[in-house]
Amino acid sequence: HLRLFRIGGRVASLSASVGVLYLGLSTLVWLGAEPYSVAWWGAHAADGVGVLLAAAGLGLAHRRDGSLVPTLAPVVNRDPLVALELGLTPVVHRFVAALSEKDPVTRHHVVRVGELAMRVGVRSGLDPDRLRALGLGALLHDIGKLMIPDAVLTKPGPLTDEEFRVMTTHTTWGFDLMSTSPLLAPAAPLVRWHHERVDGTGYPDGLSGDAIPVEAGLISVCDAFDAMTWSRPYRDGMAVEAALAVLQEGAGSQWDPRAVALVTAEITESGPVATPLFDRVGEGDLRAGDSREGGVVAVCGEALPAAARG
């Protein structure tokens, strides 16, 4: 529960972990405590504190969520992905809802990338704080596209050089937007650098090799895989095997070979994201009638090799 608290930031998880700790300590005291001794009374006190902390956590969660199921969810949950989803702050939900309003295709893309990146992060053994930053960075990696003009973002054909330059600014816009929130700021560099390449030809800062954080490399690979395998109004998605082959070909030049290996292993073992767990993110912030259906958006198409763009 302490690990899940660090990933999701839910007070209920923290209260549950401390409450269980107190109950466990009280059990140890019982092993050698004489009746009515200081240790005996201490054990009773530890039991009481543990129960009160657990109850306080449930009370705080119920006050926030208003129903029993979401109140108990962070306490009974043991899945890091669920912990992150339960602990997302209102600003994250508003960001994702705003993406949906600007274009549903982009919104569906980021929730799939967020889940795949988290699955790969768990596989790679990232510590909870880095795992949380990875999840937030992946889920919000395209948040800067809120600032891109629709004429560029929704253009169905190839971008001109100037339009491409405008499109690349979504990384720095995303960095700026996330840096304004103390809770999101740790993930802001991952958003800024998710289009960097290990050979140094990426953007916006031309980082190369180990200068690119592992988490940014993971987001980059997950981003490209999703962009290749999901259909757009102007092209069909590639088969999973073909997309993995493209990733393997670009390992060491466009993408970090370690990230490619981890993503390939996760997809081979568990399959791609079909029904995203994070699909609920932002739902409560959507306003009926605001979403534009059928929009044509090149969702991170600029992240793909020319042969994969179609």
Summarize this structure as a short list of keywords or feature phrases:
310 residues; mainly alpha
Provide an overview of this structure.
With 310 residues, the chain is mostly helical. The protein is 61% helix and 0% strand. It contains 16 helices and no strands. It has helices at residues 2-8, 11-30, 38-65, 68-76, 80-86, 90-102, 104-124, 128-139, 150-153, 161-168, 170-179, 188-192, 214-229, 240-250, 257-270, 306-309. Helix 3 (38-65) packs across helix 4 (68-76), helix 6 crosses helix 7 (104-124) and helix 13 (214-229) runs antiparallel to helix 14. The longest helix is centred in the N-terminal third of the chain and has 28 residues, at 38-65. The protein starts with a helix and ends with a helix. Mean pLDDT is 80; it is low at 286-299.
**Average of the residue pLDDT scores:** 80
Task: Assign a percent range to the helix content.
Answer: 55-70%
Shape: elongated
Helices, by number, come to 16
- End-to-end Cα distance, whole Å, is 45 Å
Summarize the biggest pleated sheet.
none
* Low-pLDDT residue intervals, each spanning 5 or more residues: 286-299
Q: Output the helix-strand order.
A: HHHHHHHHHHHHHHHH
- How many β-strands, per DSSP? 0
| Fraction of residues in β-strands | under 5%
Radius of gyration: 22 Å
Structural category is mainly alpha
